Structures are given as structure tokens and as C-alpha cells.
Amino acid sequence: MNTPYFLTDAYLSEAPGQVVAHTAEGGVVLDRSLFYPTGGGQPGDSGHLTWAGGAMQIATTVKGGAGASGAPDIVLVPAAPQALPPVGTRVEQHLDWTRRYRLMRMHTGLHLLSVVIPLPVSGGAVAETRSRLDFDMPDAPEDRETLEARLNRMIDDDLPISETWITDADLAANPGLVKTMSVAPPRGAAHVRLIQIGNSDEMVDLQPCGGTHVARTSEIGRLRLGKIEKKGRQNRRVYLHLDG
Questions:
Q1: What is the DSSP string of 88-148?
Q2: What is the number of other CB atoms lying within 10 angstroms of the CB of residue 198?
Q3: Strand order across the beta sheet in which 121-125 lies
Q4: Angle formed by the axes of helices 97-116 and 144-156, to 10°?
Q5: What b/e string do you get for 49-62 counting C-beta neighbours within 10 Å, with b at 16 or more?
Q6: What gap in Å lies between CA 58 and CA 77, rounded to an integer?
């Protein structure tokens, strides 16, 4: 199975593909997926497929069983039951780009939230307009305005966002890179993808992540801190809003 398109170019909205399998539940597996599968708190992509004589709406994308490479298959889930394109069919993949781009902006915004609240993350969820992180935080922060100002200052700074790869052994030797306690880092093929915000000489964040992100923080737009809820003796849920 080829490297998914979203790992090599998160801005690609259309791409070719070939059907390599169907699942028992009625899903489609392609040789190279443009669609990001649900994982790490980020929902699966939606969109549609077209091929000679046919089309299919894709409601979401999920991880299936282990494929030929050992990594989980990426399964495109049709919006409604229908005849699937046969195995071997060449298709065109069309992403719901508007939705994907908002998720990219929000996911990157959550990375910044973990910078201004430098505490272990116990959970999270990415959505288009309101997302959240759960922190190992006994008391709610009292300086909400300061935190929000710091978030938007990093956005205004137009920091570059890049990726690098380290080995599983490197990650094991640097456990401090892992902020999220509830989600295992995206290991695979003996290497781990790290998302870096800022230049190497002015880096504000570096952590394992398999999701999709914008190229610069200025693309995120204005972020607003929302409700902070108590979720247990040691946990606080912090909501983040993207209004534009």
C-alpha cells in the first residue's frame, strides 16, 4: 500500500486511486488514500468518488484491519448502501475540502492550546467549529484572557509548521515528547511522525501526531477559549472555538 496522500500533502483535494478491496461492512479500500481516517481525536474525511459510469458519496473514513503492509487499511464508508466500484477500478477521489481545511486549522489550534496550557493531555476531540482538550489539571486556570491572547499571538506570528520523523527507539528515549496520555503516538514502520511549530531556533511545540495540519499558524484564524468543565478530581475539559 502506498503512503497516503494526506501524509505527503495535506492540501491535496483531488487524487487518483484504484480499488484494492471491499470490506464485509460495505466499505472501499484504495491503493492510496486521499481521505484521512478517524484517529487521534480527528474525525475521518468525507467527500466522493467518481469512476467511469459511477459515483459514490463518502460519509466518513475509518481504519480497518491490517493490510498487506501491516498497517491498518483505510476504509472509505459510503453515505448509503450501493453497488461498489469493482476491485481494480480506477477512481478519482474528491475531498470535502472545506470541511478538511477547517479540521486542519482546528487540529493545529489544539496543538497551540497544549502550548499555553503546558500540562498532560488526557483526551481530546477535533471538530469544525468547537474542539476540546482534556487536561490533567486539578484547578481551572484563572487567567483565561491571557491564555487566549497568547494563542492568538502565536497565530499572528505566522509560525511555520513542519514535520520530521524519528524512530520508535528515539521516541522511547524521549518520553517527554508525548503530551497525550489517552492516545498512543502514531508508530508504524519503526518510525514516528513529529509535528513541529516554529523554526528550529524558535520552536514553540514538537509532538507526535498523525493528523493533518496547516502550513503556517496564520492560517488558523481567530481562536476563542470557551467553557472549562470539571471532568473529575484531576481533569478539566477546555473548549476551543474557531469562529471564522
A1: T-EEEEEE-HHHHHHHHHHHHHHHHHHHHS-S-EEEEE--SSEEEEEEE-SS--S-HHHHH
A2: 18
A3: 121-125, 130-136, 235-242, 223-230
A4: 120
A5: bebeeeebebebbb
A6: 6
Whole-angstrom Cα distance, residue 210 to residue 33? Answer: 14
Rounded to 10 degrees, the C-alpha dihedral 226/241/198/117 comes to 20
> Grid coordinates representing 53?
459510469
The pLDDT-based confidence of 146 (bands split at 50, 70, 90) is very high
* CA distances for 244 relative to 7, 57, 102, 127, 203, angstroms: 26, 27, 10, 14, 26
Residue entry with cell 472501499: 28
How much of the chain, in percent, has pLDDT values that exceed 70?
Answer: 88
pLDDT in tens, 108-118: 999 999 999 99
Please name the amino acid found at residue 235.
N
pLDDT at 212 over 80: yes
8 Å CB contact between 160 and 154: no
Grid cell locating 123: 483526551
Tell whether the model's pLDDT for residue 182 goes beyond 50.
no
Q: Which three cell numbers stand for residue 118?
A: 503546558
